[in-house]
Amino acid sequence: WEGHKGRERMTAGIKSQDFDAWLAGRRDLVGVKTLGGFGWMNSALHAWIEIQKRGFRRWNVTGGPLYWHGELCNTALVAQAIAVTNPTALMLNEFFNGRKQKDRRKKMRNGRVDLWVTCGSSNISFEAKASYPSAPKKSRPWQTVEPHMDRALAQVEDYSLDEPVRKLGVVFALPCVAKEHWDLKPERRVGAIRDLLVHYGLVEKTVGSEMRVSTKGLAFAAYYFPKEWKKRWDQLGDKKHKYVGVLLLARELDHEE
């Protein structure tokens, strides 16, 4: 994967025909977006998508999609993708800074983060969560995602090192389809996916003659939804829930708030 430089890099927002092609099983639904000085993550996020694709194609080895396996597995895949695209980067999973400290609630924490990365002049701490927004549900799917993001940011805020660190909350959102909705039409069955992509500014949404894009304060984002989702529907989960893909969302802690 080639590296990319620049303040902002974005795969073109998906259009209705792209989403329809995914619904029909003709192409994967994928995309990457980086903002706010995280341009160096662009190639890593593309690598993360390719790793997810390889895991999905090698079903007999992985026993199912890699994104199934929760926040620890997905965080490890992000670390792998950074290592592939930034060979000089140094990373530590479940990094402990060697001392306990008081958090905002005056409780002692062990100073541990899910992933610590140093790349060039950047030192970054990641605290990750997994979220399972329900697909055909009356509430907005991001109302399930945002509390997990708030918890991730609250936990990473309590972490400190003796050197400056950029702190990120990361959520791996896996849209979930419960059994009572399996008989719905495909576009309704996975409606939460489009809702999430639109809400976080990852898909084109026109209002009048203008394209409306809102990043919702994201530092970067990536998503992968395999085209074989209907063919492998029976294998995409257990007897009660199905998971058709994953959306990675990262937000940087705003120290000015």
Cα Rg: 18 Å
Secondary-structure class: alpha+beta
Report the biggest beta sheet as strand number plus sense, adding barrel if it closes. Answer: 8 strands, mixed
How much is the average pLDDT?
78
How is this structure best described in words?
- Helix content is 29%, strand content 27%.
- It has 257 residues and is of the alpha+beta class.
- An eight-stranded mixed beta sheet has the order 1-2-12-14-8-7-6-3.
- The protein starts with 8 loop residues before the first strand and ends in a 5-residue tail after the last strand.
List the helices and strands and how they pair.
Elements (H helix, E strand, L loop, with lengths): L8 E2 L5 H8 L5 E6 L6 H17 L1 H4 L7 H16 L4 E7 L4 E2 L5 E2 L2 E8 L2 E10 L10 H16 L8 E8 L2 E3 L7 H4 L1 H9 L6 E2 L2 E2 L6 E8 L15 E3 L2 E7 L5
Parallel strand pairs: 7-8
Antiparallel strand pairs: 1-2, 2-12, 3-6, 4-5, 6-7, 8-14, 9-13, 10-11, 12-14
